[in-house]
Amino acid sequence: MILVSIFLVLLFQGAASAAPSALGPPEGFRALDTPNDGGKSLSVVWNRSADERPERKIQVWMAASQGDFKKVAEFPSNSRYIKPGDFPWWSEPAAKGNHYAKIASSQAFPIEDGRSYAVKLVIREGDQESSSDVSHAVSEPNWFNTAQVNNLVFVLAFTAVLLASIRAARLNPLVYLRRIAGLDAVEEAIGRSTEMGRPILYLTGSGDMGDVPTIAATVILGEVAKKVAHYDTTLKIPHRDPIVMAVCQEIVKEAYIEAGRPDAYKEDCNFFITSDQFSYTAAVDGIMLREKPAANFFMGSYYAESLLLTETGAGTGAIQIAGTDSDHQLPFFVTTCDYTLIGEELYAASAYLSREPVLVGTLRGQDFGKAFIMAVLVFGTALATLGVVMQTEMVHYALDLFKDFK
Amino acid sequence: MPAHLIPTEALFGAWVAVGLTLFIFSFLYKDNPLFKIGEHLYVGISVGYTVVIVWYTVFIRLVWEEIKKGNYEPVIPVIIGLLILTRFIPKIAWLSRIAFAFVVGFGSGVAIPRTISSYILKQIEDTVNPLVTMGSGSFFQLANPQSGMNTVVVLIGVVSVLFYFFFSIEHTGAANTIARTGIYFLMIGFGAAFGYTVMSRMSLLIGRFRDLQTYAGGEYAYATAVLLSATIVTLALWEILGRRGTRLE
Questions:
Q1: Facing residue for A381 by CB, picked from B113, B129, B191
Q2: B70: helix, coil or strand?
Q3: CB contact residues (below 8 A), chain A span 187-216, against chain B
Q4: Alpha-carbon gap, residue B113 to B106, rounded angstroms
Q5: Structure confidence by residue, pLDDT tens digits, B17-58
Q6: Strand partners, A32
Q7: Which of A79, A242, B21, B218 has the smallest number of Cβ neighbours within 10 A?
Q8: Interface test with B, best of A273, A385, A390, A394 (most B CBs within 10 A)
């Protein structure tokens, strides 16, 4: 009898715990302007509670200041948690583990910037319903993305290191730079073209002036043009971007003036072909076959045209020097060119060729930056491992500093 | 029109497509007049097409229609663009430098934070992983990207490749070993990229051959067979005339 009583008591207790608990309003609810966005959206945050489950739904209702409430979103109550990596610790809308949902402007409910909206959360499960207090928020675009403060700190820190390195290089110009075979060959290529009486072909790639490899390619062009001016060889630079062409015209002209040969400068050494990728490639291939340049330079960023260009150049017997950070095209350059500047070597090239303290100092500063990144990788891995072993989230205070947040 | 015949414009398009494909493929033999026809047509049409696209999408849609609506903001970039054209007038050619300064300055300003974001922070984020994972998965479970073994391989690869790109220290002794390791990682990466890209190029080639096969049928008036024969005959004649020294270039 006693056993039966105990069994019944346990049975009823179990049934009571399985039944849905009474719905209370969500705690810690507030509406806010979505942080670090371009406007036209609001966000809501609320605290995590113990009895969240898929059957229990959270609805977001919104109203313009004078309008009726309208349902704009619905999701299970056990979703939309703030996880490590979603927000940096210095820019979290709420503590990790709590809820966060972004409500963007839509055709069904447009959100205008500068206008106040009333927002409330409704929790529903079966026939039960509970509503939060109404919170008000105004959407506005943000001028400053606080989630990317670490990016700004990196820029400022690297700038400081670069400026210090440039200053050091000015005081001591004899900074060691390791040999790069491809750059040693530049002089050889120009000399060979001069001896053979054939032109030099220089391509600045497929990028525009907003691409860093294109900027590097134009800087190297200046150094190559100076040497070409000394040797009085013909330089041909076909372009597929008119802005890059105009910049290159200025650079080559300056190079000839610096070399003391302004009379040798020809305005038409830079010429535009077309902005279309493969018709440009076909035209450059034609130039290679008909004018048979003795040296081909492929600097900048490249896409699928890389192999078509370099294979044709190799077929004409030209000495070929390529330099790009387009990682998918590097294998083709490595296989078809005599020398290839891989990635960062392209950026080092201008410093190596000119030996100007500013560029050499910049290169040395970049090395300090790389050493710092290597240290972060090693210590970061150790720290992340420690975090897992010790089951602590404290390590994220350090690791978040080196994450890319949008 | 009989049901089995295709429209004239489609037939014409098929012949043009087959002809230009064969003309460009003739480059595999050597530079020749047919390739030159294909090349010059390609360049000319692409320039004409680009001019029309830029005229309608940039000037008409983004500038002219906006000004007609009373929005005068596009006037600023138009003025900056017009400054570039001052290069044709030597006396005021210096004005074009304002436009170039704007383009280069804006480009660098946009590129620097993007580069830090994509090439530094994102790279660090994806490389820094714990060597042990709680729950399922062992250290040596290579199929799991989060396994400790993969983390170690990625870490060694990134650090050694990064070390290879040190320019201001001599690569001798231990430094040389690390740099050599970096080179091996680079070459493995290049090999994988090479194979992957060659495979995708093969699919493009197959696509061209499929087109040639499609247009070889009777409904397209045997375009492939006729134009292939014509191409071969033309190349043979051009070669014979060349050997006799009477070829016209």
A1: B129
A2: coil
A3: 208-212, 215
A4: 12
A5: 999 999 999 988 888 999 999 999 999 999 999 999 999 999
A6: A43
A7: B218
A8: A385
DSSP, collapsed to helix, strand or coil, labels residue A340 as strand
Ranges of residues in chain A with a pLDDT under 70 are: 1-22, 66
DSSP state of A67: S
pLDDT 10s digits, B102-160:
888 888 888 888 888 988 999 999 999 888 876 655 666 666 766 788 889 999 999 99
The DSSP-derived string for B134-198 is: SSS--TT-TTSTTSHHHHHHHHHHHHHHHHHT--SS---THHHHHHHHHHHHHHHHHHHHHHHHH
**Taking a C-beta distance cutoff of 8 angstroms, is the pair B65, A170 a contact?**
no
- How far does CA B38 lie from the centroid of its chain? 19
Confidence band for B92, pLDDT divided at 50, 70 and 90: very high
- The DSSP bridge partners found for residue A320 are A296
Structure tokens at A49: 């509670």
Q: Which residues pair with A44 in a beta bridge?
A: A31, A101
Residue A244 and residue A216 in contact, taking contact as beta carbons nearer than 8 Å: no
Is B132 in the A-facing interface, judged by CB distances under 8 Å? Answer: yes
Q: Please tell me if residue A358 touches chain B, with a CB cutoff of 8 Å.
A: no
What is the residue-wise DSSP string for A107-141? Answer: SSS---TT-EEEEEEEEEETTEEEEPPPEEEE---
For A169-194, what is each residue's pLDDT tens digit?
Answer: 999 888 888 888 888 899 899 999 99
Q: Report DSSP state, residue A146.
A: G
The length of chain B in residues reads: 249
What are the Cα distances from residue A151, in Å, to A402, B34, B120?
Answer: 9, 54, 9
Indicate yes or no: CB of A178 within 8 angstroms of CB of B103.
no
Phi, psi at residue A154, to the nearest 5°? Answer: -60, -45
Strand arrangement of the beta sheet that strand A99-104 belongs to: A30-33, A41-46, A99-104
Q: Tell me the nearest-neighbour CA distance from A180 into chain B, angstroms.
A: 9
The residue length of chain A stands at 406
Where do the domains of chain A lie, and which CATH numbers do they carry? Answer: 23-138 (2.60.40.10), 147-173+358-406 (no CATH), 178-354 (3.40.50)
| ipTM of the complex in this document | 0.79
Confirm or reject contact between A178 and chain B (CB < 8 A).
yes
Q: Give the chain A residue nearest B198 (alpha carbons).
A: A332
Q: How far apart are CA A354 and CA B92, in angstroms?
A: 31
**Contact (CB, 8 A) for A183 and A128:** no
What are the beta bridge partners of residue A339?
A: A321
Mean pLDDT of B202-231: 94
pLDDT the model gives residue A211: 83
**pLDDT value at position B107?**
81
Name the DSSP letter for residue A87.
B
Q: Which residues contact B108 (CB under 8 A, 6 or more apart)?
A: A210, A212, A215
**Closest residue by Cα to residue A253 from A274, A235, A272, A239:** A235
Nearest to A384 among B129, B186, B201 (CB): B129
Instruction: Mutate one of B46, B85, B103 to test the A interface: name it (highest A CB count within 10 A).
Output: B46
Q: In Å, what is the CA distance from B94 to each residue of A95, A219, A242, A320?
A: 56, 20, 17, 35
| A147 touches A91 (CB < 8 A) | yes
Type of residue numbered A105: S
